[in-house]
Fold this protein.
Amino acid sequence: MSVKIRLQRHGKKGKPFYWVVAADARAKRDGKFLEKIGTYNPNTNPATIDLNVDVAVNWLFNGAQPTDTARAILSYKGVLLKHHLETGVRKGALTAEQAEAKFTAWMDEKSNKVGAKVTGLADNKAAARAKALELEKEVNAKRAAAIAAAKVVAETPATEEAPATEETTEETEA
């Protein structure tokens, strides 16, 4: 039996949500699976990936082949790195402590990069909101000035033209 690590689509139309599963290669895309490894939500920015790294590494050691998209997700979360390091431990190239230290260092660096992206996105969003607010205040100020000018124009000629129109009507009658 050939096992694949692949995505199983859930969610609704236009809002996909995926489970990362280990499944028989002959099973349907959304059909029977052997084990759920994690979830992937591409609707958020950055995409939300929740993955059980140890289970995924265990499936890789048992011969499961990830699909291209699943491979990218596993690589992003460090599963392939951990698999590589554990292979080195099994061969005796390095100790388990060294492998764990390398993996945690990589995870810290990765979390810092993701955190920087999230804060950068939040800063950009806040700056865009502030700019939109300033533009809205400017437009409101222009509208208020135009309304005030229209009131002044409407009130001033009305009081001056009223007597003038009476005089002109009297002159035209005479």
Observations:
- Residues 67 and 168 are 91 Å apart (CA to CA).
- Residues 3-94 form a domain with the S16 Ribosomal Protein; Chain: A; fold (CATH 3.30.1320.10).
- The beta strands are 3-12, 15-24, 35-41, 48-51, 65-66.
